[in-house]
Amino acid sequence: MTASELINPATEELLRTVEQTSLAGVDDAVARAKAAQRDWARLAPGDRAAALRSFAAAIDAHVDELAALEVANSGHPIGNATWEAGHVRDVLQFYSATPERLSGKQIPVAGGLDITFNEPLGVIGVITPWNFPMPIAVWGFAPALAAGNAVLVKPAEWTPLTTIRIGELAVEAGLPPDLFQVLPGKGSVVGERFVTHPDVRKIVFTGSTEVGTRVMAGAAAQVKRVTLELGGKSANIVFDDCDLDKAAATAPYGVFDNAGQDCCARSRILVQRNVYDRFMELLEPAVKGIAVGDPAAKGTEMGPLVSKSHWESVASYVPDDAPVAFRGDAPSGPGYWFPPTVLIPERSDRTVREEIFGPVVAVLPFEDEADAIELANDTPYGLSGSIWTDNLSRAIRVSRAVESGNLSVNSHSSVRYNTPFGGFKQSGLGRELGPDAPLSFTETKNVFYAIGDA
Ligand code: NAD
């Protein structure tokens, strides 16, 4: 085993070293998970439900500890990190109802009885990115466990600590130790082995479109199931008939949350030309008012970027001659700080087309509804987005026309554990969360029982 060093992004101090799982370690984990899954699937549905509820209770008892770990490892503001830890509990609680409700169908046919069963797939590999370590892990592992599978999670190299702790809490809560295992390590070792190992029956991958494309290609060799949650370049469309004060006051939070390291970030603000100047006047104080600083301090709204190399990548989008309209504040000194930055580029600029994954937003004017829709869809991505209008018909027309999986009208909400989440186009494949997520961790088996004559 080798070890990797974790750096606190707010202080640049060494936080901890973490052992990296080897190839042989992955194979051993898969073999143990395979055996544990058989026992888990045989348990009474009520017992599996109770085990998931105990797991949720263990998370609930450690929300503050998990939140503090995320602050130190990822630089998330404490308020956000506390919400994220509570979200793990809530998602587990939501899917703890699944084992007792995963009913198939009885289909009327001639000559017998036809029943469908939702059979678990077996061992599931969940590969997560560094931006939301806790929520993204639980979106995969909770419905997968609930549907009767074993789960192996590979957290991102930079941010494994909360996932490792969640794995320990699962065991403390009474889940069989081999059923749910956390395997920190490299994407090129652990992640790739999930893809090539024949006993890993499905990959849930969240990360860049580039790596997701490789995962999908590799999975094709075994017709392995995949759910992919990939990049985004979402639009926040502001029409002239909306509550402009509210649209401008909330726009920064639609893109700068988690320092813009959010696949749902509305990183293109599209504003109808006749209200563009007024919108920019209102946006400036809102951006400058964002509290950027120590993520451990209550009231902090934005922390640092996750790492030095990611800081360099984000900074490359804002060279000295960048078309900056205005910027917010950021601390100086140690830490990977980057101020909220508003650009007014041309439509063809790379800042309008590429996912920057930092606190940088491009504001563009549009002419009319048709132009707004064309501009919003002029991207290979389609994950999220917002539409600001007080015209109900327009809200319906535009929300149906934007090619994106998660839209909000007159708000910036994207994620609720009880509603489906996922992307159009190159933002992904499949849906997580919501009532149907457990089905994506099952195969439908149809059995016809012939009924003989009495
Ligand atoms: P990444 O693609 O670099 O890494 C994601 C994970 O894949 C990591 O755990 C990494 O170790 C692993 N990995 C790397 N190479 C691999 C390989 N060859 N085989 C298997 N696994 C491999 O992404 P990142 O930089 O950690 O995260 C940022 C990206 O994630 C952004 O593009 C963002 O939009 C996306 N994201 C999407 C969603 C969503 O729900 N759509 C949510 C969060 C983040």
UniProtKB/TrEMBL annotation:
PANTHER family with a match to the protein in the record: ALDEHYDE DEHYDROGENASE-RELATED (PTHR11699)
Domain (Aldehyde dehydrogenase) ranges: 5-447
Domain of life where this protein originates: Bacteria
GO molecular function, one term: oxidoreductase activity, acting on the aldehyde or oxo group of donors, NAD or NADP as acceptor
Protein name (record): Aldehyde dehydrogenase
Family statement drawn from the similarity comment of this UniProt entry: Belongs to the aldehyde dehydrogenase family.
Active site: E229
Spans traversing the lipid bilayer: none
Keyword Oxidoreductase: yes
InterPro entries recorded: Ald_DH/histidinol_DH (IPR016161), Ald_DH_C (IPR016163), Ald_DH_CS_CYS (IPR016160), Ald_DH_CS_GLU (IPR029510), Ald_DH_N (IPR016162), Aldehyde_DH_dom (IPR015590)
Protein keywords: Oxidoreductase
Record SUPFAM superfamilies: ALDH-like
